[in-house]
Amino acid sequence: MAAGLAAAACLLASISCNDLVQASRASTILVIERIGAAQGGTSDDPIPTLLNSDVLTNGGVFPDIARVTTRLAFKAPGTSENPASPTSANWITITGYRVVYRRSDGRDTPGVDVPFPFEGGMTMTTIDIGTAEFTLVRAQAKLEEPLISLRNLGGGLALSVVAEITFTGHDQTGAATSADGTIGINFADFADAGS
């Protein structure tokens, strides 16, 4: 009977949380609410959740900036009568991120089929809800294959990818945590404003 109850408890635990959440000793989870992005070289606010990334803008290249919105959630949220509320120990600080690009057809060789993955540094502390900007597409990616071949419609017209972003950090007790988000990107040599 005890073995059956233990097995049931393990099954319920595995259904309610993924392995990464269970592995962290942090009491809070970082939830990605939204990722939006803006085309580099523009004054656009990073709002759209699909980025049309221009590989050549008025003769130059610019990084594309994204904005992430996060919130905290408790692993043990309490009850409706007595909900858990965050303290400063529960705040999560993001200290870095990694971007990996993939295509739906499975052709994902960096520098051939998709831009190279990269890591970036950032500092953002989510107290309850937070937002921060980060580089989604580096300027140098637009000077390398496969994006440079899209210039002036040379060799390709467009490339559509999904950017997978993993944000890493810790809560204020030092417990490591991470959160994943995605955003679609269409790379092309889009018409410049006024042309």
Order of helices and strands: HHEEEEEEEE
β-strand percent reads 35-45%
Oligomeric state = single chain
Mean pLDDT across all amino acids: 86
Q: What Rg is obtained from the alpha carbons, in whole angstroms? A: 20 Å
Text of the CATH class? Mainly Beta
The CATH topology turns out to be Immunoglobulin-like
Instruction: Compute the separation of the termini in Å.
Output: 75 Å
Structural class: mainly beta
Look at the structure and name the CATH superfamily: Immunoglobulins
At CATH level 2, the architecture is Sandwich
Number of helices: 2
Low-confidence parts: 1-22
Could you give the count of β-strands? 8
Overall outline: elongated
In short:
With 195 residues, the protein is mainly beta. The chain has helices spanning 2-16, 19-23, and strands at residues 28-38, 50-54, 64-74, 92-102, 118-126, 129-137, 158-171, 176-188. 26% of the residues are buried.
Topology diagram in text:
Blueprint: H1 2-16, H2 19-23, E1 28-38, E2 50-54, E3 64-74, E4 92-102, E5 118-126, E6 129-137, E7 158-171, E8 176-188
Parallel strand pairs: 2-8
Antiparallel strand pairs: 1-3, 3-6, 4-5, 4-7, 7-8
Plain-language structure description:
- This protein has one domain (27-188): Immunoglobulins (Immunoglobulin-like, Sandwich).
- 10% of the residues lie in helices and 43% in strands.
- The protein is built from two helices and eight strands.
- The strands form two sheets. Strands 2-8-7-4-5 form a five-stranded mixed β-sheet, with no helix packed on it. A three-stranded antiparallel β-sheet has the order 1-3-6, with no helix packed on it.
- The longest helix has 15 residues, at 2-16.
- The model is unreliable at 1-22 (pLDDT under 50).
